[in-house]
Amino acid sequence: MVKIIHAADFHLDSAFGALGEEQARQRRQESRELVGRLVDWANEQSVDLMLLAGDLFDSDDIYSQTGEDLALALGRFSGQVVVAPGNHDYYDPAGAYGKILWPENVHVFRSDKLEAVKLPRCECVVWGAAFTAPAVTDGSVLDGFTAPDDGWTHLLVLHGDLGSRDSRYRPLTAEQLEKTGVDYAALGHQHACTGVLRAGKTAYAYCGCIEGRGFDELGEKGFLCGTVEPGAARLQFVPFGRRRYEILSVDVTDTEPLAAISARLPRDTERDIYRIMLTGETETPVRLDWLQRELADRFYALELRDQTRMKQDIWARCGDDSLRGLFLQELRRLYDETEDEERRRQIEQAVRFGLAAMDNREM
Q1: pTM of the model
Q2: Which letter does DSSP use for residue 122 in this model?
Q3: Within 10 A of 61 (CB to CB), how many other CB atoms are there?
Q4: By the 8 A CB rule, do 225 and 47 touch?
Q5: Read out DSSP for 255-318?
Q6: How does pLDDT run across 256-279, given as a tens digit for each residue?
């Protein structure tokens, strides 16, 4: 049995272009520190093996400090590290991987052909391959491969795009994974965690990115950790990102916007990056600048978007000699005939939907 961490898609030295200059610099530094935090956690949990499934770097153009910090942090890990470079950080002898002085406990795959790393102490073999170019349209890296049935634990670490036959980023299939017969396949490239899935007897997963970098990477991010042995893989998701990206939609109809937002916000958002979408109808235009100042201290960064519309008298053209007028006249009759407030709200909603359809606009 071997205890592993499966992590991927760190994208160190990302630009964080949507943030201000100082916050972007701080986020890049936090990303560098993330690896050290991960190593400390792994050592405390007595992890044997760390599988890093590609895109450690966002590009081949990294700060020298980033490479140095990464090597120093991984060198403190008490176990073995195996890295399978991805499309963003493809292996090039003259590139980032070739310039870093890696510690003895780190093995980086350097070929686009499947290779093996034997770890006798764990009775474990790690199979893997690297991207050696920014795009790999050939998905045959696993063709013809089946792990030997020798009583050892067989693992696969690989960056690739499962289920997309036309992908430029090493297309893979579940059928290929099943035929490998490995006990666990640690995959990188997709930024959402899938949890542990199965292709026949082979367990596999995307762990997702370890830290969100934009509003296309929402919620908790982290890695997978657990034990693998012949025929069994037991891994759990571990939230680990320092900050989360979240999108919150708030209807401000008949409510003061600040109060409506405050009522919807969870606790402890100070470390996170939020986009708040204001929707509904208002009597007066939303004061975004004022809201931004009032809410700024509750977030690491905040983006407000006004998608409200000005409130209109929905009965304004009731009785007009038109389809709109007849529609409103009939619903107004139903509205006046009932004293039930819930029923009246339903009729008002029906009017708004009907008018939106007539105006060819969304509610």
Answers
A1: 0.85
A2: G
A3: 9
A4: yes
A5: S-HHHHHHHH--S--TTSEEEEEEESEESS---HHHHHHHHGGGSSEEEEEE--EE---TTTTT
A6: 999 999 999 999 999 999 999 999
